Amino acid sequence: MQRARPAPADYHLISVMANFKTFEARVVRSIPLSDFTKHLELEVEGVNHFGYVPGQWLSVKAVTPDGEEMTRAYSIASPPTDNGHVAFCLNRVEEGFMSNYLCGLEDGATISFQGPFGDFTLRPPLRDTLFIATGTGVAPFRSMLHWLLANKERHQDHEFWLLFGARTEEDLYYKKEFQELETKHPNFHFLPTLSRAPETWKGLHGYVQEHVGEIVGMRSDMHAYICGLDKMVKANRDLLKTLGWDRTSIRYEKYD
Question: In what side-by-side order are the strands of the sheet with 160-166?
Fold first, then answer.
């Protein structure tokens, strides 16, 4: 989605100072997720370990053909690892230089970036949590969920729901991956919903906000993380507030 420190050993994520050093990263692989979206995996060069907190983003720099330096922010779509790899979930924007530039990179190409930045991160104490995403807004949740579910001590006493909205099944990025996580972890529930579902679709129909109530019920003791277009974020924030949620239990990141 267009948006350092080692990953902590337990849930207690503390704030991270923004790192303004410029890094170079090499493209390890570029995988189409749909006709207009790519998964771009990068290896940060010149460091033994590149640390960040799940949910943070990087500021990517590039120079346009007419010599203008451009920067764009992208959420990290991968959990912290020891191999220095980070990933982006990129959606091509019509006439958008940076998204098309990045989506067009081949294996071995290099990019420059600064970061990590951002505080859209999991906040302690951990509670049962609803993650709500549309489109490439699923990127930070891929990072968070892989990190959470990789260690039983982090997640064993809590339930997690990923309510992921898209127009068509093709736009449910990382669908198979989330289904495998759901099979492996009984406390993780993957709930894809399509606004333009065919008759053969067996999942949820409509928009994500139409299903929040049936997930949370009368509860207000949970956390909610919301990421996607401004209109969707606002609709879900307003809904949760009408259900009695305190605003401190609702964290969000939106994009145009």
Answer: 204-205, 188-194, 160-166, 129-134, 223-229, 250-255
- CATH architecture entry for 129-255: 3-Layer(aba) Sandwich (3.40)
This prediction's pTM? 0.91
Parallel, antiparallel, or unpaired: how do β-strands 160-166 and 129-134 relate? parallel
Say how far apart CA 250 and CA 256 lie, in whole Å: 20
Cis peptide before 125 (omega within 30 of 0): yes
Cα four-point dihedral sign 45, 26, 177, 226: positive
Could you tell me the sign of the dihedral formed by the alpha carbons of 188, 141, 177, 196, in that order? positive
Question: Which residue from 127, 196, 201, 129 is spatially nearest to 162, judged by alpha carbons?
Answer: 129
Residue type, 250: I
Joined together, the tokens standing for residue 20 give 């303004």
Q: How many CA atoms lie within 13 A of 221 on its CB side?
A: 3
Residue pLDDT, tens place only, 148-196: 999 998 888 999 999 999 999 999 999 999 999 999 999 999 999 999 9
User: In the chain, where are the structural domains located?
Assistant: 22-117, 129-255
Residues in the chain: 256
3-state secondary structure labels for all residues of 25-81: EEEEEEEECCCCEEEEEEEECCCCCCCCCCCCEEEEEEECCCCCEEEEEEECCCCCC
Q: How far apart are the first and last CA of the chain?
A: 11
CATH of 22-117, one of 3.20.20.210, 2.60.40.420, 2.40.30.10, 3.40.1010.20: 2.40.30.10
